[in-house]
Every structure is written in C-alpha cells, then in structure tokens.
Design brief:
11-stranded mixed beta sheet
Length: 250
C-alpha cells in the first residue's frame, strides 16, 4: 500500500478525561486524576508548571505536556509507565534523564527545544515501546544514531523522528549509520517525515528490521536513486507514506 501526503501524527497518550476533576493522586490536587484498576493516570497539562507535583506511588501515567519544564523531573513515581513531556522547554537529554524510570513504556518529548540527545539517554529503558522525539527542529536526523543505539535491546515498537530539521534548512542524506542499530529491534513503525531528506544511502533500507509494518518518509525532498529498489527487502511493510509519485506499489 502506498500512501502520499500523510500528516505525521505524534504519539499521544490517552490521559485526558471528560467531566470533573475526578480522583486525587497528587498532594497539591493540581492535576486531574483518574483511577483505573487501583492505579492512577494524572493529567497535569497546561498548568504553567516548572516543578512536578508530588504524586502517590501508584500513579503509572502522567501528562506534563504544555508546561515550562527545562529538565525531566526526578521525583515522579518509579513505577511510571507513561510520561508525556511534549511542548515544554527541554534543552538536552542525557543518561540521568530517565534512569529512574526503568519501567516506562510510552514516552513523548515532542515539540520541545532539544539541541542534543546524548548517548546513554535511554540505556536503562529496556521496557520502552513507544518513543516520540518529533518536532525538535534543532536536533536534525543525527539524533537518530544516539537514540537507536540505546534502544537496541529494548522492546521498542514505534519511533517518531518526524520534523527534526528546520523547514528551510540544508537537505540531508539518510546514511546507514543513522539506522544501523534498528536492525537489532522489533520495530513496527518508523516515522522520519519532514526532515528534508534528499536521498537514502544504498543499504540503509536493508538495515531496517524486517518486523517493520509502517514507514513514513513523506514530506521530504527525495530525489530518484537506486535506494528505491531496496524497498523490496521490507517484505512485511504494510504502509509506506512517500510523497513522490515515481513509486507504485501494487
């Protein structure tokens, strides 16, 4: 299946609730909380926070999006499974950022002002399944190597690297080293849309895991190249988002 003109959709946790405030799961009662099976999800989005509230230990999901955090808070419950830090003011991530949260499965740092994701940032997060670093326009696709290196032994299924490059920046070539570590994973969905990628190094597609089902490379500036022939090696691919018309998949 060939899909063109797909708009990248970041990973979003379902932590928004209809109705009133609901249950209480933080000491200051800032957040909207919902109990599910004896555990809590907390929506603390858009509260102008710079410091995390104090949560009950059985909170497993926290939405801290649309706040003013410049660093990942280190006082959240250690059993955290879901964390949304999108649209804050994060500048860098390193090996201390998520070391405390070793059980985390779903993480978004989309839409921050990240300039660097250091090697080792996700080295302790073996349970991570869904990661969104999209819309950090100063990272460029160079961030893909450090992120994927840390995830080699993880449970990663979905990776969103969309829009890591400014709209009018110099075009880039996706090299083998950008994706070589992904071959060790069981990744099912990869989004590299909107990165001004003009070409793929021959052999790069062959390094993607055969578990891949969805590949989004739409809204780039791709030109014709021999890499086109390599799509055939992704024999389990179900959806290819490709904003060009010279490939037709039957």
């Amino acid at each position: 299946m060939l899909v063109t003109d797909i708009i990248p959709i970041p990973i979003v946790m379902v932590l928004f609730f209809n109705g009133g405030r609901g249950d209480t799961c933080d000491i200051s009662s800032i957040c909207m909380c919902r109990e599910i099976g004896g555990q809590f999800l907390a929506d603390c989005s858009n509260k102008n926070l710079t410091k995390a509230p104090v949560f009950l230990s059985d909170v497993i999901g926290i939405n801290l999006s649309k706040n003013k955090f410049s660093n990942i808070p280190q006082t959240l419950p250690v059993k955290l499974l879901f964390l949304d830090m999108s649209r804050n003011e994060l500048l860098t991530l390193d090996n201390t950022s998520f070391e405390r949260y070793r059980l985390i499965q779903n993480l978004s740092v989309s839409g921050n002002i990240l300039t660097e994701v250091y090697l080792g940032t996700f080295q302790s997060n073996y349970q991570l399944k869904h990661l969104d670093v999209s819309f950090n326009k100063m990272l460029t696709i160079e961030a893909m190597y450090n992120v994927s290196f840390d995830l080699r032994k993880s449970e990663i299924q979905t990776l969103n690297f969309a829009k890591l490059h400014c709209t009018y920046g110099v075009s880039q070539n996706l090299q083998q080293y950008h994706v070589c570590n992904l071959k060790h994973t069981k990744l099912r969905e990869l989004n590299i849309a909107s990165n001004r990628i003009s070409s793929l190094e021959l052999g790069a597609l062959s390094l993607l895991p055969k578990s891949l089902r969805i590949l989004n490379i739409a809204d780039n500036v791709l030109s014709f190249g021999f890499y086109v022939m390599e799509f055939a090696v992704l024999y389990n691919l179900e959806i290819l988002a490709f904003k060009t018309l010279f490939i037709k998949l039957e």
